[in-house]
Amino acid sequence: MSKNTRGIYLADGSIHRFAEGATTKGLSDHIATRDRSPDFTALGMYLPNPDPILKKLGKDVSVYRDLRGTAPVGGAIRRRKAAVRSREWRLVDSVSGQTGARADQKASPRMMQIAQDTLADLDLDAILGEMLDAPLFGWVPMETMWATVEGTLRPVGLMAKPQEWFLFSPDGQLRFKSRAAPIHGEELQPRKFLVPRQDASYVNPYGFADLSMCFWPTTFMRGGLKFWVTFAEKFGTPWVVGKQPRSAGKKETDELLDQLEAMVQDAVAVVPDDSSVDIKETGSKGDAAGAYRELLMYCRSEVNIALLGQNQTTEASANKASASAGAEVEKTLSDADAKLCEGAINQLLRWLTDLNESEQAPAPRFEMYEEEQVSEVQAKRDGEMSRSGLVFSPQYWAREYNLQPGDIASAGPGQVANPGAQAAKPAAPESLPPLPGEGRGGGKPAKPAAEGEAATDQLPEYAEGSASKRDAIDELVDAELADSWQAAMAPLIDPAQQLLDQAASEGWTAQQLIDRLPELLDKMDPAQLADSLTRATATARLAGAAGIPPAEE
Q: Which residues pair with 153 in a beta bridge?
């Protein structure tokens, strides 16, 4: 038997072979690495920035900073940053929508308070403005300054540093190009530098710079503007042409030329009597100027598309529909920029939790959101529905009108939670109108209000007469409806009441409730009510035909 056979001899001389265990060696290690790849770009020292513009020019990222001096680029950058910096922010103790084992993990109240105080002490607006340079340049290194505050280690400063001072090692780690190590760079201490990056990858740890898409349009725009100014200077004003006799010499011609040059500035010239001056305009200069204008407009449009994702909100020829669609695209970019800032701040809060609690403790979460404006149409509609008797849940008011916890107070003594609904609520306990001749207590006519007493329980008197002046017909009708009116109305009222209860418990919007109303028609059964009304009508007609006199008071 081969000595490589693995097993054990049994009593009968056979061999029981051992099961070959599944090898897991190498599953947790990188196989395709830069050290083993045929790519000799880094040569084991550092990773160069693969940006194609910078590679062709042989320069660093400072080239992109010069682009911000042009109006289209600078204006688009300010607009893009303002869309994020104008948002509100908050801290939450857990990740919304988290499922699995981490669903119930929340940051401690102590850590939430430390994080809240830390962010309140930082100049968060300036920090966010520097973080938003990451989409423009691809990445931005931000040095964190730590200090002990009230017995806890907190970041007291966060400052962006020039990208030219840093590089990435072959293993993707940030290094500082100091004077002592300008090639390989110095290794940096953990939890010292935040590095927000846009679309960074293993191939390109420097991220993608949006300003790289603006370089050539801005360059051509600058060149086109220079030629346009020269063109306007040459052909924007009429040409002044002087004429002299053929016998005039060079001296007289030069003198006339000097006078014409002075005439361009002063509009006054003295010429000999036998000379003449004509002012002529070129007929084709408009077409040439239009070519320069189209070039500049094209370059400006490319810049807006690169930085804002669209050019519909910046072009005078755009209509309202296209501008609205462009605004939606711009909002998508703003959401992506906000996510980038959230990720960087959350990394800072993760470090804060590691240093003050533990690396396993849940960290607070930083979120940015837009304060939505309340629709006047929706507010008016909700008010009308509340006054009609529909009661919205507190969850609905808080969600639709951006109310904070504690803004909705419970009703106190002598108060109602929804005055409009309370005023519109029917008197009977079953939310049904009282019977004819029946007061709020049921069974007896309402008593007139005493002097000085509120008349809220007194029934209104209509043109037919006072409710106390009743006859035998009223008594017959009341007797007919006494035992059947609730049962007759139930098939009509119960489906509506169930739908209202469902809307209140689930916090529906008014539009959701309106959309479900047509479904009630199939559930309502008026047959029992029609039968009861038929009997009551017949009773009244028979009593009237019999000539029953009115009941005496």
A: 148
Work out the end-to-end distance of the chain between its first and last CA atoms, rounded to an integer number of angstroms: 124
Q: What is the pTM of this model?
A: 0.59
> What proportions of the chain, in percent to the nearest 5, are helix, strand and coil?
45, 10, 45
Residues 63, 546: Cα–Cα separation, whole Å: 107
Q: Which two tokens stand for residue 93?
A: 């103790």
Distance CA 4, CA 12 (A): 21
3-state secondary structure of 17: strand
SS3 307: helix
Helices 527-545/472-482 angle, 10° precision: 160
| pLDDT tens-digit readout, 34-66 | 777 776 555 556 788 888 888 888 888 889 999
Residue for token pair 């009597």: 273
Residue 424's CB is within 10 A of a number of other CB atoms, namely 13
Q: Give the Cα separation of 114 and 149 in Å (integer).
A: 10
| Residues with Cβ within 8 Å of residue 236, at least 6 apart in sequence | 285
- Total Cβ atoms within 10 A of residue 351: 20
Instruction: Count other Cβ atoms within 10 Å, centred on residue 106.
Output: 17
Phi, psi of 210 (to 5 degrees): -65, -25
pLDDT digits (tens, 9 = 90+) for 68-92: 888 899 999 999 999 999 999 999 9
Q: How far apart are CA 452 and CA 454, in angstroms?
A: 7
Measured between alpha carbons, how far is 435 from 438 in angstroms, rounded to an integer? 5
Integer Cα distance of 92 and 14 in angstroms: 67
CA distances from 453 to 1, 115, 413, 448, 456 (A): 114, 59, 20, 10, 9
Tokens 């104008």: give the residue. Answer: 86
